Every structure is written in structure tokens, then in C-alpha cells.
Known about the structure:
Layout lengths: L15 E2 L25 H22 L19 E4 L4 E10 L6 E10 L7 H15 L12 E8 L2 E9 L4 E5 L3 E2 L5 H11 L2 E2 L7
Parallel strand pairs: 4-5
Antiparallel strand pairs: 1-9, 2-3, 3-4, 5-6, 6-7, 6-8
Amino acid sequence: MPLSADGDPLFKPEFFWPYQKPLPDPDEEIEFSPSSPKEAMKPLDEAMILSDYFGEYITDATLIHKVDWQHNPRQTIDFPCILHEIDQEKSLDWRVDGITGIPGGPRMKSLLLESVNADDDQITRGEILCMCRIMNTCLCSRKYRAHQVSPVLLISFVGPRHARILLGHHDGTNLVIRQSKRFAFWEQNIPDWKILLRWWCSSAVGDTING
Length: 211
């Protein structure tokens, strides 16, 4: 999933188009705790730190700076499927920290936390399961009965203190997943936070009814 330095897609997006208006920097009152690879905690702990910070950034952008309120993530209790997996024996743990959709169709956006140190060569178990469960739930609902495709955008927070963007949909034959590079947040790294926010605040493109 190639992106420009500002987060613009260097490909033709099928279903999500990143926010094009100027975005604010994170408010200085939103606390960010820098770290380093030598000080890294468990992957899930690092993921929670990043997700909490990003959640506050979304709130600040939507409530204070008037970016559309629809981008505020909801709690997963509002979504009718299980969006977590915990297996202490196998050290598996992933969970969705917030979810919302783009009005007018089954395009869903989710914040994912996972207890793994990810790399750029593989998509994680949690990322795949999360996208598939969301797609299946939407396509099985009466609300979206007329739609053939249920695209999903993930902001995935993983160890060691990294995040990435994933776009997924099923084209009728294959599960299609695009993934960005990992963004490192040992420091505050505001330009990359703004890239994540641009994609989180995406608008709808493409045809989910005919696929």
C-alpha cells in the first residue's frame, strides 16, 4: 500500500479515500510518553498507549476542530460480533478498541490492538480475523442486504510501538488486503499521526452494491 510522504495513496483506492482538508496537530495537552526500543514494554501495553493517544487525537479533531463527528469510534459492545480473542496459553491477544462506519453503506473502520511484534512482511492473525468478522457481520445483516462488498479499514497498533493502516475487502473470489508500512512512535512523530488520522477520517469511494 504505497503512500506519499503526506499519506496520499500512490494507488487507486477501491473503497476509502483519505481526508483532504487540513488537519490540526494533536493538542499539546494530550499527553504522549516517549520511549525507545531498549525501554519497550510488552507489545499489547505499547499498543494500548498508542491507541489511547490516537483516540484522544480523534476526539480533539472532531469536537474542537470540527472534523466530522461521524469519525468518533464507538465501543465494540455496539457491534454484533465478538471482536477480541484471548488465549493466555498461546500468548494470543487481540481486541478492537473502537469501531465506526461511513454512512450510506457497509464501510467499517476499526482500531485494533494486538500482542505481537509485527513486521512489514506479514499480516497478523488478529488483523485478518478482525477484518473477516466485521465483513461477515455486515454482509449477513438485513441493513446491508443489497451490498456485495463490505470494506474494512483498520488502524492496527502492534509492538514494538508501531502502527499501520490496512484496507480489506472480499472481491467475490479473494480476500484482498492492502497494508501500509509500519509507522514508529518512539517519539511523538506528529506527521505520521496525521497520516493515520487522514485515513481514519476517510470518505467513501467505489461501489459496494455491485462490487
